[in-house]
Each structure stands twice: as structure tokens, then as C-alpha cells.
Please model this.
Amino acid sequence: MSTSTRSVTGLIRRQGFRQFLELCKRYKYLYLAVLVLQLGGTGAALLLAELSRRIFDGGTELTHAELVRLIIGIAVMVMLGLFFSLGARICNQVVNTNIVFRMRQIILQQLTNLSLKYHERTHSAHTQNILFNELEVFKHFIVFDMLRLISLPVSFIAVGIYLFTVNPLLGAIAVLVGPFQLLSNLVMRGRFKDLIAEQQANGGEVFFHMDETLSGIREVKMNQLEQSVFARFEKVCKEGIRLWVSA
Model:
């Protein structure tokens, strides 16, 4: 089986990636807290939608007491939604801060332990690209995407069930959206892989130009190459914008 970083299977099989996943075990309770808060926010949003629907459906037929109860319920759901959202953000930020610094320690230690021969034949921009670009990709996957992979299906099912109770047609549409999204991902999988590879290559080129310019700033100034350097770097940046926007 291929261990290419362009495949999820290959990514998971990499030792460095598994080492990063070990960090999740240290903060498993924070992960659980974020997950519970995210699902709680989904539940509060669904209850808010249901209470709002009852107000619109009831209209003038609602008694004063029923209207007061519904308004109080809406206010409570809004407050709960804010509480869940704020709590999830705080816990997520704590996880993000701890993991990103731990990951930097791991990467720096591994890069330092590499042989001198490797550093002599590898441009320093490659190392900087790992530290400042590819490390962010890993961090986003571990901190954010893993939680979404768990919470989104549960939230999707909850929303689908609620919509079925409101209107079966709405529920059917909500359920069909998921398979269509998955199908589109499978159809466009090759293009997505190529696009990610191009983005990574462009990120490396950006750091290469920055490192070359700063390390050779004396030659740039002496030969008045500022405009030429700026023009080349602008071209690289425009290509990066095109790649990320097209994603």
C-alpha cells in the first residue's frame, strides 16, 4: 500500500503523523468537552428553530401564556447557544495552543536530529516550509478537522431527523445532500489531490523566494535587483492565490 502523503491512508501510516496523534490522548478530555459543546450548540439551534416554528404556526391562535413560554424558551435557547459556542471556542483554543507548541517541539527536535549531510544538501527554505506551512496543515487536521469528522455526521443526522418531523420532503432533501456531497468528492478526488500537491509546491516556493531574498539581501541591494525580486515573488504569490481560491 502506498504511503504517499497525498492519501489519507498513507498519511495515517506515517510515523510522524501517528506521533502527532499521540498528542490527542493528552488532551482527550478537552476534545470530549469541545465535542459535547458543539453537539449541545446543534441541539440548542434545533430547539430554537422548533420554538420559532411554533410561534409562526400558532400566530394569533396562541394564548398569552403560550406566547410568553415560547418567547422565554427562545431566549433560553439563544443564551444556551451562546454558552455552547463560547465554551467550544475556549476549549478549542486551549487545545490549539497546547498542540501547536508541542508539535513545534517535536518537529524542531526531529529536524535537529537529522544528519548534517541532509541539511547541507537540502535548502533551508524546505525546512521553513515544514515549520510554517505543512505543520499548520497537520495542526488544522488534528485540532479542527478530527472534531468535525465526529460532530458533523451526528449533527447532520439530528438535523435530518428534525426536518423529517417538520416536513418529510425537507428531511429527504437533507438526507440526499450527504450522498451527493460524497459522490462529488469521489468524482473529483483526483483533481483535489493534484490541487493539494500544487498548493504544497507553491508554499515551498514562497518560502524559497523569501529565504533566498533575505539571505542574499546584500547582493540584491548591490545589484539593484529589488524590482526583479518583487516581480518574481508577486508572480509566485498570485499563483498561490489562484490555487487557494480555486480550492
In short: Residues 10 and 173 are 34 Å apart (CA to CA). Confidence is low (pLDDT under 50) at residues 1-8. The chain is about 90% helix and 0% strand. The two ends are 27 Å apart (CA to CA).
